[in-house]
Amino acid sequence: MQVIETLAEGLKRELKVVIPAKDMEQRMNERLAEVKDKVRINGFRPGKVPTSHVKKMYGKSIMAELVNEIVRDRPSAILSERGEKSATQPEIAMTEDEAEANKILAAEADFEFTVSYEVIPPIELKPVDKIKVTREVVEIDEAEVTEQIEKIAENARTYETKKGKAATGDRVTMDYLGKVDGEAFDGGKDEDAELVIGSNRFIPGFEDQLVGLKAGDEKVITVTFPADYPAANLAGKEATFDITVKDVAAPAALELNDELATKLGIESLDKLKEIVRGQIESQFGNVTRQKVKRRILDQLDEMYKFDTPSKLVDAEFENIWRQINTDLAQSGKTFEDEDTTEEEARAEYRKLAERRVRLGLVLSEIGEKAGVEVTEEEMQRALYAQLQQFPGQQKEILDFFRNTPGAAASLRAPIFEEKVIDKLLTEVTVTDKTVSKDELLADDEGDDAAKPAKKKAASKKAAKAEDAAEASDEAPKKKAAPKKKKADEADAE
User: Fold this and answer.
1) Which fold has domain 158-253?
2) In which band, very low, low, confident or very high, does the pLDDT at 306 lie, cut at 50, 70 and 90?
3) Mean pLDDT lowest for which of 56-70, 353-367, 465-479?
4) Rounded Cα–Cα distance for residues 316 and 474 (Å)
5) How far does CA 451 lie from the centroid of its chain?
């Protein structure tokens, strides 16, 4: 077998593999010898079929099997012998000429095929002991815990029907029908809807107009949807809502005590405080980790500069670009609304894709050299987490991960990456800094401040894309009715 390198340009490689016809024939004859005693042909006793007859009947099919085995197995062996790793599955090209193919199957012509691929560039790891990061830590005080418990208590608050007019803090039960330009719109109708006046759950101006109404009253409310409302067909539009009030209820006293905890299924107020404190610490801890991780990655990005395989970058860019366009479609915005252009955004996200691929290769090399492994138990936990995100679709999710090539790798990659970050945290210099909650949750502007204004939006959105976990395209559709867009639904500006 001959392996001839026909292209070595940057990371791109192309090899021409030639297996002489006589070698192919020899392999075929060896395979024929193996099957000769097993075939059953009328007119011949078992094991007495002449080799020439077996070859006439099965030669081409056996040769086809050999060809398939060679193109399946040899490329990886060839790359291993060359000391190269392919960034993606190598592309195999064979002759498409039927006459030539028949000659190969008849062992009358050499078997030739090409292998095209991009190599993963060799990465010489550098010491990380000079990497220094600040880890922002929030000390959870009693006031923060109490504030969260009050929010929980507010959701569990009971209401009692009252006579008279609705006031701020009262719960109104109503039917409503929303219209734009006199026409009802999807999601603009509800019955027995409950709304606490002052909760700011509905669009601005809606709740204020309920003050003073009482059970049995009917009213037409006029409001204007916010310009950034997630339903593009309603954003910025004036709308009317036909309201029928069915009940007005006053809130019961809000008390933080053991009775509240028991109502929530927890044994005591102290235990509730302990649980809430743990949840807050976990939430802030996740933010802290993401910021520390970003700072480590930023410094690794400065340390390593090398060409990245274009196909990996293309695939990463497509994932990011799909996410960005989904976000824009859901918000009803355009690139111009983000103070940029599609061309500039593409360039920005292309840089992000290159960065992510480069850092992924670096982290992979660090993890491999450090012996980082993902256990089967960790994979099972990750799969279980996926199943929890799609209740009722467990079978489909399981089938997807069982039958889709590369699906398991999508579970393994983030686990592996986090374990490599854990490894790095034991080697880099980490300095803890106590900060306020607002300081922790503030976006890192960093280099954004030095960039032209029109590029800031794209840069910040790119940073958000880098930090974001994998999100499903099947996100629940948001109701178009008068609900105000929640903070966690808003796009990063």
Assistant:
1) Chitinase A; domain 3 (3.10.50)
2) very high
3) 465-479
4) 20
5) 28
